[in-house]
């Protein structure tokens, strides 16, 4: 009786959330390889002629980016690549958190791709309409905006977690039957379509259970603040988050300090994968630089803070300096996309997402099966 109730809940929850799970999973399949795909399709804007010349000062490049966008648009971030053949990317983002819909949430979102050696603008991209950004927004909020979309996606993912666990209960073979266990772990490819579909749903669902749970739970961190706070509380023993950013000072920012700070970062990390700096509007806020040490990995990083007036280093920290809770949080993105294990991990993540996308489809086909039999029952009784 209990198992029958679990089966009923499992089926209806699957039907309710099936389409959302398919969308999230398929967009996840694409976004796992976003860096590799962009390197292929956006070569003209991502890469420049390799040279041994020194890059233009960041303040000069930023001024050129501002000129390309216009005075009314504020630049909020710059992605800097120490590699000699990469363009630098300036981002300008303005959002309305209360808005409904993707194009209302982003009041504007631009990326300015720039040759760091000549200071020339390669391309100004309207990122609101860029393919991979649309894929990401579909994945995170179904193009509904963060106010409605993120909680909706997060709730569906939590329901998917329940489906995975209830599916394990339904899959579990009866005690003492080795033959049943063997059947539950294999797919009978020579059987009829109905049996193959049943095996694809149950067997593949079992094999992806653990990694699918990891991907799902790490994804909810981006949908719910309480999930993020809960993970930190669990691994920190309920301690407060450590504040590592230096406090603002009563002084004006200077472009000389910005250029001096970046020069110091590049000298310290000439082989870094990417360096990101965010331009704070807060008066006296330090210039900060986040150094990503390995391609596609957010866990291995160093963060440096510089005096906004003099350009002198104020403080810095890296992965090795983090407490356990901070390390777990820093690892969240790499676990979510599979990049913690490099390319093999991404391939695994792709396969897991693909299987997760198939589960609502195979499950729906299983659900349809009994319906067809019930429709035929009156005809059989009347004959």
Search tags:
single chain, alpha+beta, 8 strands, elongated, disordered C terminus
What does this structure look like?
The protein is α+β, with helices and mostly antiparallel strands and 383 residues long. The chain has helices at residues 2-31, 34-41, 43-46, 58-69, 102-105, 131-141, 146-171, 178-184, 193-207, 209-220, 225-236, 255-268, 324-330, 332-337, 342-382, and strands at 77-80, 88-95, 106-114, 121-126, 274-278, 287-292, 301-306, 313-318. An 8-stranded antiparallel β-sheet has the order 4-3-2-1-5-6-7-8. The protein is 55% helix and 13% strand. It contains 15 helices and 8 strands.
What is shown here, in short?
Helices cover 55% and strands 13% of the residues.
Radius of gyration: 25 Å
Overall morphology? elongated
User: How far is the first residue's CA from the last residue's CA?
Assistant: 34 Å
The helix-strand sequence is: HHHHEEHEEHHHHHHHEEEEHHH
Q: For the residues shown, what is the average pLDDT?
A: 92
Biggest β-sheet, characterized?
A: 8 strands, antiparallel
Measured as a percent range, the helix fraction is 40-55%
Number of strands: 8
**Low confidence ranges:** 373-383
- Beta-sheet strand percentage? 5-15%
> Number of helix segments?
15
Strand order of the largest sheet: 4-3-2-1-5-6-7-8
Q: How do the strands and helices of this protein lay out in sequence?
A:
Layout: H1 2-31, H2 34-41, H3 43-46, H4 58-69, E1 77-80, E2 88-95, H5 102-105, E3 106-114, E4 121-126, H6 131-141, H7 146-171, H8 178-184, H9 193-207, H10 209-220, H11 225-236, H12 255-268, E5 274-278, E6 287-292, E7 301-306, E8 313-318, H13 324-330, H14 332-337, H15 342-382
């Amino acid at each position: 009786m209990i198992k029958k109730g679990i089966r009923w809940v499992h089926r209806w929850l699957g039907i309710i959330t099936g389409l959302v799970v398919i969308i999230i999973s398929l967009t996840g399949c694409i976004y796992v390889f976003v860096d590799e795909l962009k390197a292929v399709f956006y070569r003209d804007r991502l890469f420049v002629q390799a040279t041994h010349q020194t890059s233009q000062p960041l303040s000069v490049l930023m001024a050129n980016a501002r000129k390309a966008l216009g005075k009314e648009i504020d630049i909020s971030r710059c992605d800097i690549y120490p590699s000699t053949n990469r363009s630098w990317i300036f981002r300008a983002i303005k959002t309305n958190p209360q808005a409904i819909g993707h194009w209302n949430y982003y009041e504007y979102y631009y990326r300015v791709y720039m040759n760091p050696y000549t200071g020339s603008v390669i391309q100004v991209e309207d990122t609101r309409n860029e393919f991979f950004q649309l894929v990401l927004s579909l994945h995170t909020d179904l193009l509904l905006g963060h106010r409605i979309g993120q909680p909706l996606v997060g709730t569906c993912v939590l329901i998917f977690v329940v489906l995975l666990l209830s599916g394990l209960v339904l899959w579990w073979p009866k005690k003492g039957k080795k033959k049943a266990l063997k059947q539950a772990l294999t797919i009978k490819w020579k059987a009829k379509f109905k049996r193959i579909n049943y095996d694809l749903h149950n067997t593949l669902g079992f094999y992806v259970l653990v990694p699918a749970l990891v991907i799902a739970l790490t994804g909810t961190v981006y949908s719910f603040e309480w999930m993020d706070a809960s993970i930190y509380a669990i691994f920190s023993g309920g301690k407060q988050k450590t504040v590592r950013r230096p406090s603002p000072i009563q002084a004006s920012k200077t472009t000389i300090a910005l250029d001096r700070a970046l020069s110091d970062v590049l000298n310290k990390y000439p082989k870094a994968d990417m360096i990101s700096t965010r331009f704070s509007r807060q008066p006296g806020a330090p210039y900060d630089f986040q150094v990503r040490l390995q391609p596609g990995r957010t866990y291995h990083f160093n963060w440096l803070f510089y005096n906004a007036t003099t350009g002198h280093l104020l403080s810095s920290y890296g992965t090795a300096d983090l407490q356990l809770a901070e390390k777990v949080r820093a690892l969240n993105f790499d676990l979510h996309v599979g990049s913690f294990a490099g390319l093999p991990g991404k391939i695994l993540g792709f396969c897991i997402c693909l299987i997760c996308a198939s589960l609502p489809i195979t499950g729906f086909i299983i659900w349809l099966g009994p319906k067809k039999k019930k429709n035929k029952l009156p005809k059989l009784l009347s004959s």
